[in-house]
Amino acid sequence: MLNKNFIQRTVSGAIFVAIVIASVLISPYTFALVFVIITALALHEFYKLTHKPGETEVNAAVGISAGLLLFICSFVYAYELVNFPVYPIYGLYVLLVLIAELYRKKKNPVNNWAYFILGQVYIALPFSLLNFILFISGYQPILLMAVFITIWVNDTGAYVSGMLLGKHKLFERISPKKTWEGFFGGALFALLSGYVFSRFIPDISLIQWLIFSELVVIFGTLGDLSESLIKRTEQVKDSGNAIPGHGGILDRFDSMLMVAPVIFIYLKMIIGE
User: Fold this and answer.
1) CB within 8 A of 225, min separation 6: which ones?
2) Phi, psi (5° rounding) for residue 24?
3) Is there a contact between 179 and 162 (Cβ–Cβ < 8 Å)?
4) Is the dihedral of CA 144, 147, 150, 156 positive or negative?
5) Would the pLDDT of 53 be above 50?
6) Which of 2, 93, 100, 216 has the fewest Cβ atoms nearer than 10 Å?
């Protein structure tokens, strides 16, 4: 008989994947709507996770609104919906938040500054860069899907390989269950996905797809380890409980947080206008 938690994890995971895929493929506006919600949930988890009375007290609503403003500015700019600079609006908002901290009379305002900015750089910025991957050269949903699919393939390959062959710890201090065998197994699976993508998207060469895949593996693993470091520091198992059986939004997008900036730069180098 199947374990109840396994069924719950499978069903919720399938729904999550279906929502992400549908949001990207249906239209730019469904992507924006779904990922505005995801970005808000991720930022909420982060600011809740790092909140410590008397030590770190970032106003979560302000942090979330700033991150959403960055995402929306990035969407309208990347989609060319406006013909004027939008980022100064975000910059001004952030400046006002930093100034407002002077008047909040909190015990450790420097910590509040630091964690507010960290949330913007670590979470809001990578989610915002997804807009530029989606519109890297016109509307390119398949490229953004390639990012997500490669991350999922790598995660699956690493899990299976680590479970069957794992002996040598990859980074025991931060993530005791990760192994080198899992890492290389995931890398092999990702290479196979890169080969498949090269057959369907010949505009990008096979070698470029293989490099793409391994960049996702390397920086996806670093993203995973980074979130594990935060959770270990805050002494929690999951970032939240938004996805039954899987934990929080950050637990599902931890790899992407490091992958998005690197893949954006890489795609700009090989196909960007």
Assistant:
1) 171, 174, 175, 178
2) -75, -40
3) yes
4) negative
5) yes
6) 2
pLDDT tens digit sequence for 153-211? 998 888 888 888 878 888 888 887 888 888 999 999 999 999 999 998 888 999 999 99
Say yes or no to pLDDT of 220 above 90. Answer: yes
Mean pLDDT within 256-273 = 90
Dihedral through CA 68, CA 150, CA 204, CA 184, nearest 10? 130
Q: Alpha-carbon torsion 186, 188, 190, 196, what sign?
A: negative
Cβ–Cβ under 8 Å, residues 248 and 240: yes
Structure tokens at 223: 């993203």
The C-alpha angle 250, 211, 24, rounded to 5 degrees, equals 45
d(CA 193, CA 16): 21
Residues 35 and 125: their CA atoms lie apart, in Å, by 13
